[in-house]
From TrEMBL:
Organism whose genome encodes this protein: Pullulanibacillus pueri
Top-level taxon of origin: Bacteria
GO cellular component: cytosol
EC number: 2.1.3.2
GO molecular-function term, one example from the UniProt record: amino acid binding
Name of the protein described by the UniProt record: Aspartate carbamoyltransferase
Subunit structure: Heterododecamer (2C3:3R2) of six catalytic PyrB chains organized as two trimers (C3), and six regulatory PyrI chains organized as three dimers (R2).
UniProt keyword annotations, A-Z: Pyrimidine biosynthesis, Transferase
Length: 304
């Protein structure tokens, strides 16, 4: 079975197919559910709300059986390795494992040793492919494509797996990526051009804000909430200078009054909760692809 570890492993054609299938699920739902039990294990070694529960909702909407792993009560507390845990789940019948882990590239020593499909739900500061796909779906629904768009990624770039995945794939799909945020958190390896916060806000079609990932900062405290908001956040005053058609995105969880003014979280430009809604359908498409299923007949194709 195929793994989904990073989008750089996928062709543009496969990415487009996943977006099309997700839109089909959103428009038509799961036309038929799987006929025999298929088990999918969800292993989250870091806190998660949106990713964890949208995968679980996606699994249930497809008629899959979710096995929700709890690290605090599992044999990992007795020294069992991640590989051995996955081998146990594989032998118990799991066909796929959705994994969130603090270690970047946790999947590298696993992918050639297991028969179940590995789905990366976020690895440290590495990649977050399902989040990138739901971001792409949200942008495509708004602009019908990517070529010619300018997408700004603003904030804690160095520690953001979302920024890494998005910058790489958006560039591949023909968008221009601009980057902004504190110099201390720049990521020179990302594709894109660094600009000032003001230029990013004023020139972008998509303003994608990023959370300050304090859990990855090793105690470095560069800003208070108030000073960050004034220096790099989307304030009410900055929002007024955005392009008329520009939209606001954020992978969440968002910090009101830090990355974004509280009043803007659900303003007319905001697509933040739309991203969350799209997450279920993207993850349905990912699971269908990873498990080799055909929930909506392949002859049904939707152009978006």
């Amino acid at each position: 079975m195929p793994h989904l570890l990073s989008l750089t492993d996928l062709s543009v054609h496969t990415i487009e197919e996943l977006l099309t299938r997700a839109q089909a699920f959103q428009d038509r739902g799961a036309e038929q559910r799987v006929r025999e039990p298929i088990f999918v294990a969800n292993l989250f070694f870091e806190p998660s709300t949106r990713t964890r529960f949208s995968f679980e909702v996606a699994e249930k909407r497809l008629g899959l059986n979710a096995l929700n792993f709890d690290d605090t009560t599992s044999s990992t507390q007795k020294g069992e390795t991640l590989y051995d845990t996955l081998r146990v789940l594989e032998e118990l019948g799991a066909k796929a494992a959705v994994i969130r882990h603090s270690e970047q590239g946790f999947y590298e020593p696993l992918q050639d040793r297991l028969h179940l499909s590995l789905i990366n739900a976020g690895d440290g500061s590495g990649h977050h492919p399902s989040q990138t796909l739901l971001d792409l779906l949200t942008i495509q629904q708004e602009f019908s494509g990517f070529k010619g768009l300018t997408v700004a990624m603003i904030g804690d770039l160095r520690h953001s797996r979302v920024a890494r995945s998005n910058a790489e794939i958006l560039t591949k799909l023909g968008a221009s990526v601009i980057l902004s945020g504190p110099p201390e958190w720049h990521a020179p390896e990302f594709p894109g051009t660094y600009v000032s916060i003001e230029e990013a806000i004023e020139t972008a079609d998509v303003v994608n804000l990023l959370r300050i990932q304090t859990e990855r900062h090793d105690g470095e405290g560069l800003f208070t909430k108030e000073t960050y908001h004034q220096a790099y956040g989307l304030t009410l005053e900055r929002e007024k200078r955005m392009k008329a058609h520009a939209i606001i995105m954020h992978p969440a969880p968002f910090n009101r009054g830090v990355e974004i003014a509280s009043e803007l979280v659900e303003c007319r430009r905001s697509r933040i909760f739309k991203q969350m809604h799209n997450g279920v359908h993207i993850r349905m498409a990912i699971l269908e692809w990873a498990l080799g299923l055909n929930i909506i007949p392949q002859h049904f194709q939707l152009s978006i």
